[in-house]
Amino acid sequence: MKRLIIANWKMNPQTLEEAKKLMVSWQHRLHFVADHVEVVICPPFVFLPSLHHHVAVIKLGAQNMSWIEEGALTGEVSAIQLKHWKVSYVILGHSERRLYLGETDSIVNEKVKLALYHKLTPILCLGGEQGADRDQMQSLVTKQFAACTKDVEDKNLHKIVYVYEPTWAISTMNKSRPETGEHAAEMVDHIYTLLEHRIGKAAKTAKVLYGGTVNKLNVHEYAKFPQIDGALVGAASLDSENFWQIIKEFHRESLHRS
Ligand code: PEP
């Protein structure tokens, strides 16, 4: 199974020129790693119409999506609109949306079901809750997993990309600290176990990633664990070289194992 590296650009960069420059900086190099690594870039919505021409080796993702199909929802973007710009992934349940915009598990659950219905791959973030500490992570992730995948048909559960991303590990959070590879791997195993309870052996066909301050200096900590299928990368994905080193390290580890 290919490893998956996802760039979450958040509300960056400020201009389309910078966005295009970043995209182009990886486009050709990715051919060298495409046998073992898949790369998804999640830019702000406004850049999607200009970046969709680059979709080939690089896939496009959105950072959010409305929980309903269409209608009077100021400021929201629908699944169908995203599909129009060749978006194939969508980040759902990110800590920042839970924390600053009050998103709940039930809203995330609606979005997950709608994304699957429209054949968009949900990138479901688990572990985001302000104040939760490390000892509470297994129960928090268990609760979020159950609530966010409620009524999702078993046959669709492996289509979701799960990301263990504890709030405190996000580089821009107050008093942020990255997690250790060991803890990340344990939590990834835990998510696989939750999946196994629902779909048995098919759990192995799902991807489970880690997110939180992954960068070129610490990527080996995570890439060396075979069960960590990739990374969700924020700040480091805005630096062309830093992000490329992350991709290369996951590729190197995969080559080493194959
Ligand atoms: C994120 O917020 O999804 C993230 C992974 O950010 P960072 O890599 O900056 O911690």
Summarize the structure in words.
The chain has 258 residues and is of the alpha/beta class. The protein has helices at residues 16-27, 48-51, 79-84, 95-101, 105-117, 137-148, 154-157, 181-199, 219-223, 240-257, and strands at 3-8, 37-42, 58-62, 87-92, 121-126, 161-164, 207-211, 230-233. An eight-stranded parallel barrel has the order 1-2-3-4-5-6-7-8, surrounded by five helices. Strand 7, helix 9 (219-223) and strand 8 form a beta-alpha-beta unit. Helix 6 packs parallel to helix 8 (181-199). The protein starts with a strand and ends with a helix. The structure holds phosphoenolpyruvate. Phosphoenolpyruvate binds next to strand 8.
Lateral strand order in the biggest sheet: 1-2-3-4-5-6-7-8
Any idea of the CATH class?
Alpha Beta
Q: How helical, in percent, are the residues?
A: 25-40%
Largest sheet: 8 strands, parallel, barrel
The unreliable regions are: none
* Helix-strand string: EHEHEHEHHEHHEHEHEH
| CATH architecture verdict | Alpha-Beta Barrel
Judged by helices, strands and strand pairing, the structural class is alpha/beta
Query: Cα-atom Rg, whole angstroms?
Result: 17 Å
Shape: globular
Q: Please report the distance between the alpha carbons of the first and last residues.
A: 10 Å
Number of strands: 8
Strand composition percent: 15-25%
Superfamily (CATH H level) name: Aldolase class I
